[in-house]
Design a protein that fits this description.
Length: 390
């Protein structure tokens, strides 16, 4: 062993050894996250129930906030109203400050056809400003049942089995149900990028939810027991902030919940893509504004993944570019192992959610993700969205 150490010290300088040590350490850090993600995408809710068996089917209220979304009301809302679920359920539509008469007329026609549709309206008042949390609060209070699911006008259930599968997550009166939301696949580079970023953002959320410590959820596919909402005073602590209902609120209640993660091709929702880069980027900036209010430990957990990326790719590129004997071969091997591990996680995620993985874009994003996070952070501080606060 001493001869080997002496040989290594004679063959390489200290900074060369430091580079390979940093790269190896960063690779081990990557493996820590990869193992968590792989465990999460392999999660099966019904197996986790164990001896308790299948959960009792519960009545549920599904809440969706609309604002003159005529296409959604005509084409998607009927899909929610005709879900295959044997237990009575309710769809609560919060008609948030409509400007078109057609919105109310279409909802009235649907409520006459479907007795399980309940519509409540927030009237337009130029002297009264409110965040979307008020609309959600009104929807929760109007809900007939103690279990509530949330979806948005941008999300379409995968099929008529969506409701029945998501309702299996309500195992107690403290249940939080987490479901996957994917981006609809359309041609174009922007769509590949949007789907890639959605995958990278969803994996830490999924891993945290499976471990019983959820910190965020997609607004189009999640739910919780109403008791959690009222026992913790709803959104009162951040009511003036027009964001945070799916992360700041969950972080307040996460120690009091029974988290259920439902992964199934029939339990996902599909979100409509942004269509334009500026729209997509501004949505990301708006939705991630609440990051500054996360606990330090959570920000460290999320930030360390990007730090490990910077250290790994920075040292790997340096060693390969310098063509340092034997060390650059180790770097290439570690890169190959990293990509294979990522591919295994993505493949399992695809199988569980029918997410179409843009593998090449995902591999490239692993390199540029730290720069994107830095630019997004600077942009949020220098030019925050104008409608964040009321």
């Amino acid at each position: 062993m001493e001869r080997l150490v002496r040989l290594i010290l004679e063959s390489y300088t200290y900074w060369q050894l430091a580079l390979i040590a940093v790269e190896t350490g960063a690779f081990c850090g990557f493996l820590y996250y990869a193992v968590r993600f792989l465990k999460a995408v392999r999660h099966r809710h019904l197996k986790r129930l164990g001896e308790n068996g299948l959960p009792e089917a519960r009545s549920v209220s599904v809440i969706v906030v609309v604002h003159d979304d005529l296409d959604y009301i005509e084409n998607v809302l009927p899909l929610l109203l005709q879900q295959k679920y044997d237990v009575p359920y309710q769809i609560v539509v919060v008609n948030d400050m409509p400007e078109l008469e057609e919105t109310g007329d279409m909802l009235k026609m649907l409520s006459e056809r479907f007795p399980n549709l309940y519509v409540t309206t927030i009237r337009n008042n130029c002297h009264f400003k409110h965040t979307r949390k008020l609309a959600y609060t009104i929807g929760i209070k109007a809900a007939r049942y103690d279990c509530v699911l949330f979806t948005t006008t941008r999300d379409i259930p995968a099929n008529e089995k969506w409701l029945g599968l998501m309702c299996k997550g309500f195992v107690s009166d403290r249940s939080l149900v987490w479901g996957y939301s994917r981006i609809k696949r359309v041609p174009g580079v922007l769509n590949r990028l949007e789907r890639t970023v959605n995958i990278y953002a969803s994996l830490p959320m999924l891993a945290a939810a499976v471990s019983g410590k959820p910190f965020s959820a997609r607004p189009g596919n999640m739910g919780f027991a109403r008791r959690l909402f009222f026992d913790h005073n709803g959104y009162c602590k951040h009511l003036r902030l027009n964001s945070g209902e799916n992360d700041l609120f969950l972080q307040r209640i996460r120690h009091a919940v029974d988290t259920s993660v439902i992964l199934s091709p029939s339990a996902v929702t599909e979100r409509m893509p942004a269509g334009r880069f500026s729209v997509w980027y501004n949505r990301r900036k708006f939705d991630t504004y609440t990051y500054r209010y996360y606990p330090v430990s959570l920000r460290l957990f999320l930030g360390m993944e990007n730090i490990f990326r910077v250290l790994f790719w920075g040292t790997a590129v340096t060693l390969i570019a310098m063509q340092i004997p034997f060390l650059w071969e180790i770097s290439v091997t570690l890169i190959g192992l990293r990509l294979l591990t990522m591919a295994a996680v993505f493949r399992k995620l695809s199988k569980r959610t029918q997410e179409k993985i843009p593998y090449l874009t995902c591999f490239l994003w692993d390199i540029v993700a730290p720069a994107d996070a830095l630019i997004l952070s600077i942009s949020r501080r220098l030019k925050p969205s104008i409608d964040l606060w009321i």
